[in-house]
Amino acid sequence: MKAVLATDLSAASEATIRNETCLDCLGRIGIEEFHLVTVVPSNVHGGMPGIDFEKRRTNAIRRYSRVIEDAGFDVETHVVRGTPHRRIIGIAGTIGANLTIVGSRGKSPLENRVVGSTARNLARTTETPLLVNRIERGVDDPDVVRQHLFQRMLYATDFSENAERAFESFAYLRHATREATLVHVATPKDPDQESDPERRLGKLATRLEDWGIDAETVVRRGDPAEEILATEAEVNPTTVLVGSRGHSRLRRLLLGSVSEDLVGRATGNVMLVPPA
Question: Family per UniProt (predicted)?
Fold first, then answer.
């Protein structure tokens, strides 16, 4: 499996790359090859401070590459110019990536608009599973918030087709997952209000237990994003796993929904699985 690891060479990105536990977790789920990507913003041009961004970033990304190679992975590096999320998506598609990884911390509401913008834009438009690796906020030398990426999973489902697609990610996540909490949030707008969510969650839990994962189920009622975040606070997972419906291209661009809320507001990591 191949992974794109996007870095802006910030402290948050460095925390993602230097963490050996995170690299070990990615190796367990089958990642063998990393493509380190850093994007020089398209509005940086001749005569502006920082014009040597390409050279500086190339030197920095080589250091990161050695860290990953020393952990036993194959690595390729890409220093490109353009709009970050578009170039990251383009490279992921070109190499046939199985996963895109980006670090995000959002130190303050203002910074979150800037530093977190790439993660949010990827959440809206990614065509491969996206892992947002949460980094400590408010410190000069940050570390990852959760050491073990996939050890304790919180899987949120509305029983849609794409939620099922997200669940199928356990086929490879199971090699690094020990526990999982499955949550469904019932709302007045649910198309299947008469369905039995406890039974349906129970069937999914049985599948996980067959894979050796301890599973529990939770049914809540209310606003989906708020209730999923409340469940995260209660069970303290390492990563929240969720699918994005995105029934149309327009809807994906205007996501503004549960999955984007989770990417922006979750305490820990978020893995977002887009539509096929």
Answer: Belongs to the universal stress protein A family.
Each domain of the chain, given as residue ranges in start order, spans 2-134, 152-273
* Entry pTM: 0.85
Three-state SS string over 17-66 comes to: HHCHHHHHHHHHCCCCEEEEEEEEECCCCCCCCCCCHHHHHHHHHHHHHH
Q: Do the domains at 2-134 and 152-273 have one common CATH topology?
A: yes
Structure tokens at 144: 């990852």
Query: Domain 152-273 carries which CATH code?
Result: 3.40.50.620
